[in-house]
Design a protein that fits this description.
Elements lengths: L10 E4 L2 H13 L9 H9 L6 H10 L21 H13 L7 E4 L14 E4 L16 H11 L4 E6 L6 E10 L14 E9 L5
Parallel strand pairs: 1-2, 3-4
Antiparallel strand pairs: 4-6, 5-6
Helix pairs in contact: 1-3
Length: 207
């Protein structure tokens, strides 16, 4: 998303160490990125992560996995396909984005550690794990803490959150119905694969 933002100063934060390392590496080494990742390489990295730099773990873990779920299973177009076609497309997409993120300051940091006393006048976009989706069912994202954090961050900033639903204290300012093709983004009760993407902001009390 950040590659589409037009602004003089952009900061991208994520708690995932390998993702940030990949983005930082790509800013100065786009020509060094491999063309594709084959399944044997995928499994080798998956089973021996400590032997590879963080950026390469991120490349293999995200770009060669179905649905970009970190090491969530090697992506291939058919049962016997080992051409690396999926990873090739993902890596090419990354390379296309690089010119638009060269000046982004990427940080491996959680929202919990951001110094809100020093962050004023910003537009803060939050792409949190969608609550109730299968992609994040084993992760323990602190939703209640995040909601409280947004309220404080919204005092001096414009905070936008992508989600399917939020507590009543937040209002939806945009929505669009989309067809979800990836199982990792489905709600476990969603049989039609149709979801409504929404953008929320905090309802600040007006005097």
């Amino acid at each position: 998303m950040i590659d589409k933002i037009k602004c003089n100063k952009r900061i991208g934060c994520d708690v995932h160490k390998q993702l940030i390392a990949l983005l930082q590496y790509s800013q100065g080494h786009s020509a060094d990125l491999p063309e594709r990742i084959l399944e044997d390489e995928y499994k080798m990295v998956q089973q021996n992560k400590e032997k590879y730099p963080d950026w390469y773990q991120g490349l293999v873990g995200f770009c060669a996995s179905f649905g970009a779920k970190y090491f969530g299973g090697y992506a291939r177009d058919s049962k016997d396909d080992n051409s690396g076609k999926w990873s090739c497309g993902a890596i090419n997409n990354l390379k296309k984005q690089i010119p638009n993120i060269l000046d982004v300051n990427f940080k491996n940091i959680s929202f919990q550690d951001l110094p809100l006393d020093k962050i004023k006048g910003y537009v803060i976009y939050c792409d949190i794990p969608y609550k109730g989706t299968t992609k994040y069912k084993t992760e323990q994202f602190p939703y209640e803490e995040f909601y409280s954090w947004v309220k404080v961050a919204s005092i001096y900033n414009t905070v936008l959150i992508s989600e399917y639903s939020m507590p009543d204290e937040f209002e939806c300012i945009w929505q669009k119905e989309v067809k979800t093709l990836l199982n990792s983004n489905k709600n476990k009760n969603d049989d039609q694969n149709v979801r409504t993407e929404k953008l929320f902001t905090y309802k600040q009390l007006k005097e």
